[in-house]
Design a protein that fits this description.
single chain, 408 residues, elongated, seven-stranded mixed sheet, alpha+beta, 16% strand
Length: 408
């Protein structure tokens, strides 16, 4: 083996080890939270915001920030007992602290001038993604102005309870309607922004989601490692994309609901199965293994059909498509939108999905040519590298599957 090939082998293997060493804490669906903000025009000079806040996080954060131990004790006890009425009662009994926490971190301005908030009615309770959410309606009295800005810094990383909080805003304001995704790096949006600036936020959110989701990246690496020709990875990636796009849209629009306790273990299992399948083909074919799309003889000549695939190739696409359906539910759960259908929301979700696909294509464009060159110049080294990648991915998938299944 030449020096350059040894370097390539070491480099690829080191990259896989680095990814695996990140561990479950860097999964796509870790300790994050999503805030929901519905912003509408009220009476003249007034703005209405309806906020949805993850209940247990809200109680802990507000009690800590406002130094309110009774709120923590009663609110936490109500959460552990699953008593919805007691949860609302705890917040309403300590409404001053709860509202103060929110209004210090969530604001509305009119042409740069601050709007004054006032609570409307009591706290209410609901559920999103299977967990209790508190509802808070605020009325904002604003100076006369043309454009409004909404800023959110709720549940910041500095509080150490969660990381990467997102605020999903839907609005009908200043004669405009749309959606925006806010986070620590992009904490505000203005109704003066253009449509492409608002949609860029969802594109960025989708790209960052996949980049931060080690489980989805490992699934993609397993597909790349098991594909020897460009056609194979293109078909596999297309199958995966079509599948997760369908369930992503249906779930994000609230038309399909599957508990995360089911989705997350299956995502982990899909990683192990796709990687393990390639390892099984290597075991069957030895040095002549050519990926999952080849037939019984593993020589690429048996039973070729449409797209140059045999029965094993079509079986692979079906498996990838089925697992893609589950991954789409995971993407939707991470974004956390389950609002009623609207064209504005639909376009925002499509842009989020395009952000995911852009990163996926970039990973394929980066990794697949390197493996192709290695396989052609040193077939044995290529087999060892793809085998090492698949073995590591399979092992991590099985670890995650066990952890998610049993809640370890």
């Amino acid at each position: 083996m030449s020096r350059h090939l040894r370097r390539a082998l070491v480099g690829v293997t080191a990259a896989v080890i680095a990814l695996l060493s990140v561990g479950p804490s860097a999964q796509a669906h870790g300790f994050t939270s999503t805030v929901y903000a519905d912003v509408t025009s009220g009476e003249e000079g007034h703005i209405r915001t309806k906020l949805g806040l993850e209940y247990d996080l809200f109680v802990v954060s507000a009690a800590d920030s406002e130094d309110n131990d009774p709120l923590f004790r009663t609110g936490n006890a109500a959460f552990e007992n699953g008593d919805t009425a007691a949860q609302a009662a705890a917040l309403n009994a300590h409404a001053a602290s709860a509202v103060a926490y929110v209004t210090r971190r969530f604001s509305v301005t009119s042409d740069g001038a601050a709007c004054a908030p006032a609570r409307v009615g009591d706290f209410t309770m609901g559920r999103r993604e299977g967990v209790p959410y508190a509802g808070l309606l605020l009325d904002w009295s604003c100076p006369e102005g043309g454009n409004h800005e909404v800023r959110s810094g709720l549940f910041p990383d500095a509080e150490t309870y969660v990381t990467g909080t997102k605020t999903i805003v839907t609005y009908e304001l200043d004669g405009r309607s749309g959606s925006a995704a806010l986070d620590a790096a992009h904490p505000s949006f203005s109704t003066a922004q253009s449509w492409y600036e608002r949609f860029w936020e969802f594109f960025r959110l989708g790209a960052e989601h996949l980049l931060g989701g080690i489980d989805h990246i490992l699934f993609l690496l397993a597909l790349i490692a098991g594909s020897r020709r460009l056609r194979e990875i293109v078909l596999a990636a297309t199958s995966f994309t079509l599948a997760h796009s369908v369930t992503f849209m249906l779930a994000a629009l609230g038309l399909v609901a599957v508990p995360s306790s089911v989705v997350e273990p299956v995502i982990a299992l899909s990683i192990a199965v796709v990687a393990g399948w390639y390892l099984w083909q290597i075991r069957r074919g030895g040095d002549h293994a050519t990926g999952l799309t080849l037939g019984p003889g593993l020589d690429g000549t048996a039973g070729r059909g449409h797209f140059g695939l045999d029965r094993a190739g079509w079986t692979r696409l079906v498996v990838v498509f089925c697992f893609g359906l589950v991954h789409g539910l995971g993407f939707a759960g991470a974004l956390g939108i389950d609002e009623a259908f609207s064209w504005t929301l639909l376009w925002s979700l499509l842009v989020f999905n395009i952000g995911i696909e852009a990163v996926q294509l970039a990973i394929i464009a980066l990794v697949f040519p390197l493996l192709t060159v290695l396989r052609r110049r040193a077939p044995t080294a290529g087999l060892w590298v793809t085998g090492a990648i698949s073995a590591g991915v399979c092992a991590m998938g099985l670890v995650w599957f066990t952890q998610r299944l049993f809640g370890v």
